[in-house]
Specification:
globular; alpha/beta; 2 domains; four-stranded antiparallel sheet; Rossmann fold; 26% strand; 11 helices; GMP Synthetase, Chain A, domain 3; binds 5'-O-[hydroxy(phenylacetyl)phosphoryl]adenosine
Length: 429
């Protein structure tokens, strides 16, 4: 066993112990949601099952699937399984349709969140008292508070900076010797760029924990060398209880460990809903085993990934490892008959020396045919031709590539938007 642990026995429990725990907890949670919530009970009944049909983890396939739509249809608390006076906190994400997804928490749920997130901090090497700067916003978005609850549980020294004001973030990190920096991926990049512009360094910084967005290996490498730190890919979502609930990669960087005593994962072929083989990409489906207010049952995340390994990892942990998320079931782009994901564009761009980390994929309709233009920030040594050449090799067709000086393309606070659509009148949305 190497590295740091928050709950060594649970994190390194044998695979048999984990399966036994999952079977017990699945029975309990199936009964909990069935007895506490009429919407979920109706979904069980529509499949002709009751909680008595769930005897072990293998029976999970009998349960009904949920998706984001299930949450939206029952906005705000129609899926809640706790009494209103048992609620202690809520978070919410907006998503594309406008109707938000709401996640309520009891105090026990907050402790569960803190536990999962604290495991992630320790797994990255954070020790009690480490100055930890939290840069996602503190609000309805779960990022800021989740990193806070976990840091409290892990006994870290919290610098709750919240979102934005990069020059001030850098000042805080210098003045308070920040060792652990957390944020959404694109904000980590922003900090790296501003450090570069200010010709500053953060010598005490050693650990970067970033997520919430597709995080390509090449971008991780770039951040590791740019910031001179170790970089971790943290995963979680509103519906599973927030950042860190699902897990993170360890210092071996050999896949994202999912906390299997708290969650069961399945990877299904999105159209047929049939499980795919390990190593094959499919849609991640999650069941929460230990949450009270709104445990998701077979929630279709829309995220694409594959099982990397079920073996004990070099770090000693036994919890299953997934490959980094490659994209969403719904963000696949099909241009000129070629299917590709925004992440492939990012991977290709990062191969060009001098290319920055901010880019836009702009889709436009030209005479009824969709075309794509890639705008990328880069040093003056990079030409549009160089960009087009790597994209052709990576995607199999040649989008137009336009190069902009570093810092000139628009940025969003929070998660970066990469794909834009250009209307006929030239408006980009
Ligand atoms: O983004 C939770 C989070 C906050 C994770 C901060 C990491 C850091 P939501 O706003 O509900 O929650 O968005 C969840 O974001 O279904 C994925 O599509 C995407 N996502 C989250 N983490 C990663 C990651 C937060 N590490 C949605 N890699 C998820 C790729 C990620 N995509």
């Amino acid at each position: 066993m190497s590295g740091l642990f928050f709950q060594p026995e649970l994190e390194t429990a044998s695979i048999d112990q984990l399966r036994a725990m999952q079977s017990e907890r699945l029975k309990t949670i199936a009964r909990h949601v069935y007895t506490r919530n009429p919407v979920i009970r109706a979904a069980f009944e529509a499949r002709g099952i009751g909680p008595g049909d769930i005897r072990s983890v293998e029976d999970i396939v009998k349960l009904p699937l949920m998706n984001k739509e299930s949450f939206r249809m029952h906005y705000p608390l129609g899926m809640c399984c706790a009494e209103p006076n048992a609620l202690a906190e809520m978070h919410m994400s907006s998503g594309s349709t406008g109707t938000p997804v709401v996640m309520p928490y009891t105090l026990d749920d907050l402790a569960q969140w803190g536990e999962c997130m604290a495991r992630c901090y320790r797994m990255a090497g954070a020790r009690a008292g480490d100055p930890t700067q939290i840069t996602p916003s503190f609000g309805l978005f779960n990022g800021g508070f989740g990193m806070y609850h976990g840091a409290r549980a892990a006994g870290l020294f919290i610098i709750p900076a919240g979102a934005g004001n990069t020059a001030r973030q850098i000042r805080l990190a210098k003045d308070f010797d920040t060792r652990v920096l957390t944020g959404v991926v694109s904000y980590g990049i922003r900090i790296m760029e501003v450090l570069d512009e200010m010709k500053e360094r953060l010598p005490k910084l050693e650990i970067g924990i970033f997520g919430a967005e597709v995080f390509s290996d090449s971008l991780k490498t770039k951040m590791r060398s740019g910031l001179g730190i170790d970089v971790f890919d943290i995963y979680g979502m509103t519906e599973t209880g927030g950042v860190g609930t699902l897990g993170m990669d360890c210092t071996a960087h050999d896949g994202i460990h999912v906390w299997e005593d708290h969650y069961i994962i399945e990877i299904l072929q999105p159209k047929t809903e049939i499980p795919v083989a390990d190593g094959q990409e499919g849609e991640l489906v999650i069941t929460s085993l230990t949450r009270q207010a709104l445990p998701v049952i077979r929630f279709r995340t829309g995220d694409l990934t594959s099982v990397r390994s079920r073996q004990r990892c070099g770090c000693g942990r036994t919890h299953i490892r997934l490959n980094p998320i490659t994209g969403r079931v719904d963000d696949m782009l099909i241009i000129k008959g070629v299917n590709f994901f925004p992440k492939q564009v990012e991977q290709a761009l990062m191969l060009i020396p001098g290319v920055g980390s901010n880019y836009q994929i702009i889709i436009e309709d030209k005479d009824g045919v969709q075309d794509v233009v890639i705008n990328v920030e880069a040093a003056s040594t990079v030409t549009g031709y160089m960009v087009e050449k790597v994209l052709k090799e990576a995607l199999g067709f040649s989008p137009q590539g336009d190069v902009y000086p570093i810092g000139t393309l628009p940025r969003q606070e929070g998660k970066a938007k990469r794909v834009f659509y250009k209307d006929e009148d030239g408006t980009i949305r």
